[in-house]
Amino acid sequence: MTSTLTGRRVVVTGAAGGIGAALAAALIDRGAEVVLADLSPEVSGTAAGLGPSAFAWIGDVSSVEGISALIEFADDRLGGIDLYFANAGIIGPAMLGENDADWDAIIDVNMRAHIRAAQALVPRWQEAGSGYFVATASAAGLLTQIGSAAYSVTKHASVGFAEWLAMTYREDGIRASVICPMGVNTNLLDAAGAGGAAQKAVTSAGTVLEPAEVAVIVLDAVEDEQFLILPHPEVLEMYRMKGSDYDRWLRGMSRYQARLEER
Ligand SMILES: NC(=O)c1ccc[n+]([C@@H]2O[C@H](COP(=O)([O-])OP(=O)(O)OC[C@H]3O[C@@H](n4cnc5c(N)ncnc54)[C@H](O)[C@@H]3O)[C@@H](O)[C@H]2O)c1
Prior knowledge:
Radius of gyration: 18 Å
Bound molecules: nicotinamide-adenine-dinucleotide
CATH topology: Rossmann fold
Family: Belongs to the short-chain dehydrogenases/reductases (SDR) family.
CATH superfamily: NAD(P)-binding Rossmann-like Domain
CATH architecture: 3-Layer(aba) Sandwich
Number of helices: 10
Protein name: NADP-dependent 3-hydroxy acid dehydrogenase YdfG
Keywords: Oxidoreductase
Largest sheet: 7 strands, parallel
Strand content: 5-15%
Shape: globular
Distance between the termini: 48 Å
Organism: Brevibacterium siliguriense
CATH class: Alpha Beta
Helix content: 40-55%
Low-confidence stretches: none
Pfam family, one: adh_short
């Protein structure tokens, strides 16, 4: 089977483990060359396990300096970047958070990292007449995240930003997609706090998928240039319910939260 991803030069952020590592492995299966970027030095082992088409870069993918160094590294190893998966993410503080520092950290990783990478990549993609930006947001970016305001808000921002990119640069040959899963079996789900409201909300709302299952769904959708990627298809119906009667949806979510708290 031929893949439109064969020979593509790809960056995946947050690729030491979880969804990012699974995306990198699936991309390599389809014949792409991949730079795996992560703060965690474990990314070196992950890349080494994927063979000669995988290259590890260790650093912060949310800072301007980090992104510029990552792009330079990818240019050097791959000779350019055709697709950029802005996948690194953190769960951030519970509830409202306590201070600006709590919010700054999650805004940087879940939102500004996407903006900063696009600012660096879009001008060159416009010149080349092609390029593809894939953001890992979350079902929380369409619906909400019980127990975490900052996660909800930054994931909404990620959906809004990807949507804007997809609309604005379509005629330049640039594509964008956004991935909006519910539960996926990764460290982040554990970090949501065993037994806490955020974790209970995710694990009781639907099936918890394995990262490898998500990666196949995502790459199939990217090959079709589909914007909204829903590894849990039921999210579409939930999103429709929210859009069709916002107040009813809010009352329902509030009752759902109360039920989770009783458990
Ligand atoms: N697991 C889920 O249930 C779920 C559901 C919806 C969306 N997501 C999203 O999927 C994405 C991947 O998360 P995951 O579930 O695989 O969790 P994960 O914790 O396994 O992976 C996230 C990776 O991002 C890296 N990272 C964090 N900040 C970074 C930074 N500043 N620079 C470089 N790397 C950084 C971490 O070191 C980690 O390896 C995230 O954006 C997350 O919000 C996850």
